[in-house]
Specification:
The protein is 40% helix and 17% strand. The protein is α/β, with parallel strands linked by helices. α6 (105-114) links the parallel β2 (97-102) and β3 (121-125). The longest helix has 19 residues, at 48-66.
Amino acid sequence: MNDNDVRTGQARPSIARTYDYLLGGRDHYVIDEEFGRYFEKVLAGSEQIAISNRGALELAVRALTHAGVDQIIDFGCGLPAQRNVHQIAREQVPGSRVVYLDNDPIVVSHGQAMLVVDDDVAVVQADVRDPESIRKHPEVQRLISFDRPVGLLFSVVLGFLEEDADPIGPVRYWVDVLAPGSFVYVSCFRAGDNRRTALVQDQVRKVLDRGSWHSDATIAAIFEGLEMIGPGVVPCVQWRPDGSPGPAPTDWEQLIVSGLARKN
C-alpha cells in the first residue's frame, strides 16, 4: 500500500494494519507504518509484544487441535499472516473449519480475498460485542456446530473493549453456549502501575481513540469456571500448553498475557 491509499480516507492508523507491519507483513498503509515505528524507535523493544502475542496464539491453536477440535472461531482476526489459523489447525486436523471475524471492513475484504481457500473457511464482518448476531450469522451457522467442541480465539481483541463496558461479557456468552470439550483462548494487555504500561496505553488511546488494559481480576474472571491449560495466565512469551517454562519476559512482554482454558 502507498501514499495514495492514505488519501482515500485512511487518515488514522488501524491496529490490525499496525500489527501487520510489526509482524513483517505488507498489508498496511504509510500511516500504520509510522505508528509502528513509534513503538520500534521511541518505545524500543515494545514491538516484541506483537511477536510474542502471535507466537502464543499459534501454540494455542496447535493445543486445541491436538485435543481433536476441528472447528474454530477467530474473533478480531486481523489481517492475514504468514501462517494463518486455518493453516495451523489443518496441520493436525485436516479439514478444520474456521470462521474469521473482524469489524474492520478493510480487514474483512483482504481476508475474503486471501483466506477463503475452500468452503470450510469464512471471513465475516462482525462486532465481538454482539455475540448473538454472530451466532445467528449464516456463515457461522453453516460452519460451526455448537453441539460439538469449538475453539474460540480472542487474541488482543478484548483490549479494545473498555474496562467499564463489560469486556468479559462477550466471552461469558460463548462459554454458556459451548459444548463440553470446547476451548477458549484469550490474550490481552494487562494493566500495571508502571511507566511502560502508561506509555503504551496512552499512545494507543491517543492515536486510535480507544484501547483499555485490563486488571488481573478482570482477566481471571474471563476464565471463571473453566479448566486452565498449561501454566494458567502468564506473559504470552512464557505460555506453553504443557506448562513448561518459556523464556523470561522482557519488561515490555510483561504487558501482554494469555491463557487457554477448557470447558468440562
